[in-house]
Amino acid sequence: MLRKTTAWTGLVILLGTAAALGHGDTVPQSVDTAGLPDLPEEMAAENPWRDADSNTLFKAVEVGAKGYNSNCARCHGLEAISGGLAPDLRYLEASDYGDEWYLDRILHGYEQNGAVKMPPFEGILNQEAIWAIRTYVETRPDDQEIAENAAKLAEMRDKLAAVKDDQPAAIALADEIASAGQGFEALSGAPRAITPFDEAAYLLSTQPPHVSAALETLQAAAD
Ligand code: HEC
Predict the structure, then answer these.
(1) What is the pLDDT at residue 11?
(2) Which of 31, 126, 130, 194 is the Cys-Cys partner for 67 at CB 3.0 to 4.6 Å?
């Protein structure tokens, strides 16, 4: 009985996927963009959040990371670090030229000799999701540089871990953690790189603060 149910569920998933994409790949997922400022209906030609204030920028990175993980990571690599299947999006220039290329690919996808190499996301992702994903990829720091700072990350993690049950003390660490993240450059040339230090500091500064998420962010990056 159990086997039968499992097989049936598997078949439904398989058929649903095949119908949605036309071949056996994962279905593109819409992205919840709640919390981001609404953009005008007409598609922007350039990333509207490239020079946004910190709150908008971090929100865009947060939403963009989710959108990226559910729609792009399987080809373009986890944390936007390409394993070679598809181009490494961290290097796509944060400029009007890079944005034009980005929009063309994300809206229309890419076909070669009748085979879908990249599915189109037009009509699946709204404009906010499209630019949030762009903001996430273009603010990626150099993973080598992050790896070289593992000791500093571990130090901040330990400081935060020591006060994790004392919310005001945890929040008070936000500035120190943020300054530890200064000086990193984005691989795309974007005005700002968002490092795990920045993410942790941001998570501590939200209302309500997300202390354990901040700790997990530092922990994951320090490992
Ligand atoms: C099924 C695999 C697959 C998925 C899923 C996928 N892509 Fe791609 N993508 C590719 C391949 C392959 C290329 C290279 C096509 C080419 O030669 O231009 C590409 C190219 C691109 C380019 C051009 C990069 C460059 O440097 O030329 C961008 C931008 C891009 N993808 C963005 C995305 C985003 C954003 C998502 C998720 C919303 C996504 N892709 C999902 C496979 C994929």
Answers:
(1) 38
(2) 31
